[in-house]
């Protein structure tokens, strides 16, 4: 197991040097007179998880929604696989902080909803959804409704929906912030296996330093007013460790401390 | 709404509708729709007339008395219902019934019991307004955060202090919300009462104008009435917003 | 043990009807029959078919008026909620209508449309329409923004966002707007029977009053209030059943 993971990781790390899945260049976003993002550039290597970390109000969600095509930047470009983003596309899937499940639809319809909007036939999309429902561990809940599920299970539905459209890039907006601490830890572990097993690019917004260090291949630290990238940290050694011991690792603890030292003066 | 980057005020489209009315009136499309300008000039004429002034006075009198009774009876009843479970369970079904019941049907009863006069109109007004006031005052007391009351008790507040310094304020947004809806209902109640009893206030005025086919007069009175009703409702909404800033944050 | 809340409801009804009975015996007024007399009159009216015939007459303008208000009101409400221009143009009218005592229009409606069915349908419509329009528009505007973003992120077309997300999300509030509209429609229907021409239940009320048969008058009023309340409660039950999980299931609960 350890052996295998190490192999996979080395492969990805070497490939990543050249292969950039998403690149953001000189993006600015103004709301009226308020500058939310100023001249921000950032690159996201393929097959890796990049966290956007920063205090609240630093524009990390704004940046994520610009990459998703849900917001238009005031200036600058976003490229996904070398193609400029002009709006939402099939190459990206979004996981929402508040899950954004349809309360009137069953788990099955919710998971298949992305495919439904793409015009996939009912039997086909339900077969795909079935597979991803099983993948996130919700088999047996296909006919349940969101209000019958716990917060953690709801976010699994949101995750299955994003996975089922088989997009190359997964955009996650503080996906675990509305679930309890134990569930969150389980999610973080599952996310690590997901990054290892699926060859997808993950962009992950969080305000938790520990979470960012635990799950990321690359951490972009954003500072507020106007938002800019202050630092990029790559916890390279951690990916080869067993996920159960990472939190005791000296490198993990050092990076957490280092990030806190650079952020603390920006917290009100 | 924005036009060429300029923000149009919220109710400004009413000007367009007014203009349309004027045009339809000028085109003599229908006898029943005189031009708006003519309605307004009639409005200034009838302001001075005795009939209008007494109608306005009688309506205001019935309205204010009706609302007064609805508030004075409704708020305490609602607060007691919120604090006493037995009372709540006995009264709540009735409050809910009268809240959704077509109260117009009761006006004939009021007429035979209290006569064809001011008294019946005032009671009609109260009946229209009171139920929602009771219900909201009750809801206001029920939603009070327990820890807020415990905080007051832990600092040694007497029951009276707790009531005047915590309960009333904590329930105020709901209570005011109820009063606002109650007052809007009271405006409708006072007019319905006057129409059915029709010897007083605007009810009598409408009879007079429609019997003589005085269309501009009719519309003029309607505009005054609708304008007043809208002003009252907006004013109360403004008051409610001033208090409810903390309603969302508790 | 009998359910406490049901027991208290019976007790509460017993107290009120008992008070009515006693007040009728005193009597508080020559025009105040006892509860039992009124119920006897109600039974009589029910069995000789008068009440049935009256309700057919009364419910006709109500049903037509509600049907028109529902179709027009929901359509206008959807447009107002979806389109800023429509909102700017139409919302003020319905906001004013909502606050205004529209009953004052009745004498005018009678002048224009006479004393027939048209006027009565119109009264029901002006009473019921504003709340239907405003509820629908408000519900559309309050669709959770993350649901719309979700649709967009999966490249839903505008039409799909409206039909698959906005309308289902708004339907509980639209339905309750309809219920409030029907409640207002009842007021309008009875008002028009009492004010325009006595027909149906309004006829029983007016006629019994003129011949001083107060028991029948109270019985008719009692029946229309009970009917309206039961019907509206039924609608509320249906609403709760249909949209049980619809208002929940977001991150906050």
Topology:
The complex is a heterotrimer of chains A (268), B (250) and C (253).
Chain A: H1 2-16, E1 20-31, E2 34-45, E3 49-53, H2 60-68, E4 75-80, E5 83-84, E6 92-95, H3 107-117, H4 122-135, H5 151-164, E7 169-173, H6 181-197, E8 201-206, H7 209-215, E9 218-223, E10 228-233, H8 250-263
Helix pairs in contact in A: 3-4, 3-5, 4-5, 7-8
Chain B: E1 2-3, E2 6-7, H1 13-26, H2 36-47, H3 50-83, H4 85-100, H5 107-114, H6 118-142, H7 146-154, H8 159-197, H9 201-211, H10 215-243
Antiparallel strand pairs in B: 1-2
Chain C: H1 4-25, H2 35-47, H3 50-82, H4 84-99, H5 106-113, H6 117-141, H7 145-153, H8 158-195, H9 200-210, H10 214-242
Task: Tell me what you see in this structure.
- The complex is a heterotrimer of chains A (268), B (250) and C (253).
- Chain A is α/β, with parallel strands linked by helices and 268 residues long.
- Chain A is built from eight helices and ten strands.
- Chain A folds into two domains: 20-91 and 168-268, P-loop containing nucleotide triphosphate hydrolases (Rossmann fold); 103-166, no CATH class.
- Chain A has helices spanning 2-16, 60-68, 107-117, 122-135, 151-164, 181-197, 209-215, 250-263, and strands at residues 20-31, 34-45, 49-53, 75-80, 83-84, 92-95, 169-173, 201-206, 218-223, 228-233.
- In chain A, the strands form two sheets. Chain A has a six-stranded mixed β-sheet with strand order 6-7-8-3-9-10, sandwiched between helices.
- In chain A, β9 (218-223) and β10 form a beta hairpin.
- Chain A is globular.
- Chain B has ten helices and two strands, in the order ββαααααααααα.
- Chain B has helices at residues 13-26, 36-47, 50-83, 85-100, 107-114, 118-142, 146-154, 159-197, 201-211, 215-243, and strands at 2-3, 6-7.
- In chain B, a hairpin with a 2-residue loop joins β1 and β2.
- The longest helix of chain B is centred in the last third of the chain and has 39 residues, at 159-197.
- Chain B is globular and about 70 Å long.
- With 253 residues, chain C is mostly helical.
- Chain C has a single domain (35-242), classed as MetI-like fold (Orthogonal Bundle), CATH 1.10.3720.10.
- Chain C is globular and about 70 Å long.
- The interface between B and C is large, with 55 and 60 residues.
């Amino acid at each position: 197991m350890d052996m295998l993971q190490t192999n996979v990781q080395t492969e990805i790390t070497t490939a990543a040097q050249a292969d950039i899945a998403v690149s953001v260049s000189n993006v600015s976003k103004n709301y009226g007179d308020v500058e939310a993002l100023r001249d921000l550039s950032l690159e996201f290597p393929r097959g890796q998880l990049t966290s956007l970390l920063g205090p609240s109000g630093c524009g990390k969600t704004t940046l994520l929604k610009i990459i998703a095509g849900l917001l238009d930047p005031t200036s600058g470009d976003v490229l996904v696989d070398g193609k400029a983003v002009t709006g939402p596309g099939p190459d990206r899937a979004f996981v929402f902080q508040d899950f954004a499940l349809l309360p009137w639809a069953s788990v099955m319809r919710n998971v298949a909803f992305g495919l439904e909007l793409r015009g996939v036939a009912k039997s086909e999309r339900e077969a795909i959804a079935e597979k991803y429902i099983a993948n996130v561990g919700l088999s047996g809940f296909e006919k349940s409704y969101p209000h019958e599920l716990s917060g953690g299970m709801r976010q699994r539905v949101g995750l299955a929906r994003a996975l089922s459209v088989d997009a190359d890039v997964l955009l996650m907006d503080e996906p675990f912030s509305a679930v309890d601490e134990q569930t969150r830890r389980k999610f973080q572990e599952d996310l690590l296996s997901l990054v290892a097993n699926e060859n997808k690019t993950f962009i992950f917004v969080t305000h938790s330093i520990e979470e960012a260090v635990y799950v990321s291949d690359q951490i972009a630290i954003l500072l507020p007013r106007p938002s800019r990238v202050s630092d990029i940290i790559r916890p390279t050694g951690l990916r080869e460790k067993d996920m159960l011991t990472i939190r005791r690792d000296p490198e993990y603890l050092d990076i957490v401390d280092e990030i806190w030292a650079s952020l603390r003066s920006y917290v009100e | 709404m924005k036009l060429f980057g300029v923000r149009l005020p919220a109710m400004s489209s009413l000007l367009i509708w007014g203009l349309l009315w004027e045009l339809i009136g000028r085109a003599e499309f229908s006898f029943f729709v005189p031009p708006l300008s003519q309605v307004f000039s009639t409005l200034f004429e009838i302001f001075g007339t005795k009939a209008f002034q007494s109608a306005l006075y009688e309506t205001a009198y019935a309205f204010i008395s009706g609302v007064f009774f609805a508030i004075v009876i409704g708020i305490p009843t609602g607060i007691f219902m919120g604090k006493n479970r037995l009372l709540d369970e006995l009264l709540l079904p009735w409050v809910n019934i009268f809240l959704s019941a077509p109260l117009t049907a009761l006006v004939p009863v009021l007429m035979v019991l209290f006569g064809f006069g001011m008294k019946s109109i005032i009671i009609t007004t109260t009946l229209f307004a009171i139920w929602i006031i009771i219900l909201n005052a009750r809801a206001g007391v029920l939603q009070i955060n327990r820890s807020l009351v415990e905080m007051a008790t832990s600092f040694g507040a007497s029951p009276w202090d707790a009531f005047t310094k915590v309960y009333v304020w904590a329930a105020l947004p709901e209570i005011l919300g109820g009063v606002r809806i109650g007052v809007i209902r009271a405006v409708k109640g006072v007019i319905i009462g006057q129409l059915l009893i029709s010897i007083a206030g605007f009810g009598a005025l409408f009879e007079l104008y429609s019997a003589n086919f005085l269309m501009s007069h009719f519309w003029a009175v309607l505009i005054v009435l609708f304008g007043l009703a809208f002003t009252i409702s907006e004013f109360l909404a403004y008051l409610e917003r001033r208090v409810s800033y903390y309603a969302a944050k508790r | 043990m009998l359910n406490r809340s049901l027991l208290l409801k019976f007790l509460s009804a017993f107290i009120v009807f008992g008070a009515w009975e006693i007040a009728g015996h005193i009597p508080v007024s020559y025009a105040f029959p006892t509860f039992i007399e009124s119920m006897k009159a109600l039974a009589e009216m029910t069995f000789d078919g008068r009440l049935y015939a009256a309700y057919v007459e009364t419910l006709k303008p109500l049903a037509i008026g509600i049907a028109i208000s529902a179709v027009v009101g929901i359509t206008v409400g959807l447009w107002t909620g979806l389109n800023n221009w429509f909102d700017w143009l139409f919302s003020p009218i319905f906001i004013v209508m909502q606050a205004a005592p529209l009953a004052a229009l009745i004498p005018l409606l009678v002048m224009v449309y006479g004393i027939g069915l048209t006027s009565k349908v119109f009264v029901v419509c002006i009473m019921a329409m504003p709340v239907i329009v405003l509820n629908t528009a408000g519900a559309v505007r309050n669709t959770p923004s993350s649901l719309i973003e979700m649709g967009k992120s999966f490249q839903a077309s505008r039409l799909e966002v409206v039909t698959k997300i906005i309308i289902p999300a708004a339907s509980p509030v639209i339905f309750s707007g309809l219920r409030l509209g029907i409640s207002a429609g009842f007021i309008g229907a009875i008002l028009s029977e009492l004010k325009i021409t006595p027909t149906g239940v309004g006829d029983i009320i007016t006629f019994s009053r003129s011949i001083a048969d107060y028991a029948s008058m109270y019985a008719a009023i009692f029946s229309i209030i009970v009917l309206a309340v039961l019907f509206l409660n039924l609608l509320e039950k249906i609403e709760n059943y249909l949209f049980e999980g619809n208002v929940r299931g977001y991150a906050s609960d």
